[in-house]
Amino acid sequence: MERKLVQKAILFSSFFLFQVSLFGGPPIVLDTCTTNDDCLSAIAITNVISDQAFVCIDGCNMYASPDSVIQACQMGDFPTVWYRLNLDDIAVVMNVEVYSTDFEAPVISLFKGTSGCDNLEQVYLSSGNVACVIGSDGVAKAIGTPVDSNTTYYLAISSLLSIGGNFELCISAQSTGFVCVVDRNIEIVARSTGGPLEGPFEPNEKVSICMNVNEFTAALNGCQWFQGLIPVFGNGWDLTSFDANEQPINTLLNGDTIGENGNGLYGAATWDWFSDVDYHHDNPSINISDLDGNGRLDLCKSVYEKDCPFKGVTGGCCGPCWGAPVGDFLPNGWFAYGINGTCATPGPPIRVDWGDGNSCGAGMGPWHFCFDLTTRDIPDCLSDSTTKDLSLGFYTFADGEIGSWTGDASVCAYDLPVKLSLLAKCGRVSTSNTEILPNLCSNDTLLYQMEEPNIDYWEWNISPFWAVPYIENRGPNGFTIEAPLINESGETVDVTGILIGHELELDGIVLKKFKFKIGTPETCGFVSENSPKVTEEQNQISIYPMPVTESALLEWTFDFRNQATITIYNSNGEWMQDILVSSGSQHQQYMDTKALTPGIYFVSMGNDEFHYVTRLVKL
């Protein structure tokens, strides 16, 4: 029977080339690119223990399918993979970070699954009001998300405006984090161009933000009061959003002007912006430095953030008035003074006064620090890899850390920061309606030519990969996709193609999507007599051992009539070698891998009857 051919010419946009990664464990490497691209097949992360170091695993979403359930955060458009973890009986907070050198904008979304995948409950990351965080420069973070102990959580990881690639997923949990600050969050209140509050955000767009400390307790901490909030801003915010002292312009505290006398909640407390506040105690986990190279001091805590350097701060001496000597200075922030207690000297400086409080009990607050920021415009947002980073965060401080409260090193230092990633869109991004292609049959070939003026190169993701096992996913302008189609599942398969064309000179991105169905031999009106009846789940071909060193054994579970070819490709889809296999090969074939350099490879086995693909890792 002759194969059917379908040919189309379309326009697109651009992006990056990404390699494939596997999450390994003996004796067989587990494919994290396609096998976990829905919630039911989520890969279990089993060793997250409260108050221990981050647990990091290698993952991959290249060739994975867009999510069919979650449409928020554009996970329904770009390859998405799933993970699950069970928290222990003391966990109260979770930190999640994703790092990738293969794609720019990792996306993280978190769900609570008390009854499995059938009834997922969206968890708003970092106690905020956004359904996901969208990173930049290959990094996405959600620090300080409250969680329930003894509960199963699901993570969905995707790549915005990208066909995906390798990433590292890092998770930690803590049993403490809300010692003094009981409830806090970052709220994206509004955006000037409309659209989802999690972004991505347009160039020169105004975003309204509130950093909220909703409740503070002085119980069980020696009667400490809330006295400071240091905000953290990514380098993608336009410098005109800040005054000469790096404070967001026109900030309001509960509707009152910053610096206005008595604008605190209690007594004579007054909040203002200060740059001369020092820390009282030695703390090895606090790092104060210019982390993004923009000339402004940043703050991070290595206990809660994987990439925070272990630097530490040196405290001053001594209570109740401190300052002899002063400790290391903190970055600029909002701090309270005006309630004069243990130290007779009236403030400022902050170190001689108490914070903003009125009792030794719970229920103090709320404090809402609200302001507008504007994203960088074109071409400023193209300056370097950090100028799309719109991340937000803040750290809180009690008067036992920076004020005149007397006592030992403050337990309020254990309060978690809150941080979340946001992304700026820089350059033109255009989309069009989904194109519906003619339906095809198993064993047909899809031909799809991509050619358009000003396009430099193309990337694409066609899913599900098992039905369209086409390894190539990048090509020059004018490239024609020639994808074999396989459907031995017994049911019609829905196929989705995401195509990204890149205009380098204009830094433009054009997104296209197509859909079609692959029928079965029965629904297409014919039955292939020779096709092996093997489903996707039956692990048609396998490689042992994995990873490989000098040799490997390829095994398969089916019979075939005509000679087949085993082909090894590198991770860029380039041919490496062919091995001919006769139909009487006893379901296995020895492969000499000594000539392969360490890395990830694709192994394809097929003839006119069938075509299967698996992956090989060479050490």
Helix-strand blueprint:
Elements: E1 5-6, E2 9-10, E3 43-44, E4 55-60, E5 80-86, E6 93-99, E7 106-112, E8 114-117, E9 121-123, E10 133-134, E11 139-146, E12 152-159, E13 166-174, E14 181-191, E15 206-216, E16 226-233, E17 252-253, E18 256-257, E19 270-274, E20 286-289, E21 298-301, E22 333-337, E23 367-374, E24 392-398, H1 399-402, E25 418-420, E26 429-431, E27 435-436, E28 440-441, E29 445-450, E30 457-463, E31 474-476, E32 480-484, E33 493-503, E34 508-519, E35 541-544, E36 551-556, E37 564-570, E38 575-581, E39 588-592, E40 599-606, E41 611-618
Parallel strand pairs: 1-29, 2-29, 3-5, 26-34, 27-34, 28-34
Antiparallel strand pairs: 4-13, 5-12, 6-11, 6-13, 7-9, 7-10, 7-12, 11-25, 14-15, 15-23, 16-22, 16-24, 17-18, 17-23, 19-22, 20-21, 24-25, 29-32, 30-31, 30-33, 33-34, 35-36, 36-39, 37-38, 37-40, 40-41
| Coarse structural class | mainly beta
As a percent range, the share of helical residues equals under 10%
Sheet of most strands: 9 strands, antiparallel
Instruction: Kindly state the number of beta strands.
Output: 41
Compute the average pLDDT: 86
* Sequence of strands across the biggest β-sheet: 4-13-6-11-25-24-16-22-19
Q: What number of structural domains do the residues give? A: 4
**Proportion of β residues?**
35-45%
- Which outline best applies? elongated
Question: Explain this structure to me?
Answer:
This protein is 1% helix and 38% strand. By secondary structure, the chain is mostly beta strands. The longest helix has 4 residues, at 399-402. It is elongated, with a radius of gyration of 28 Å. It starts with a strand and ends with a strand. The model is unreliable at 1-31 and 525-539 (pLDDT under 50).
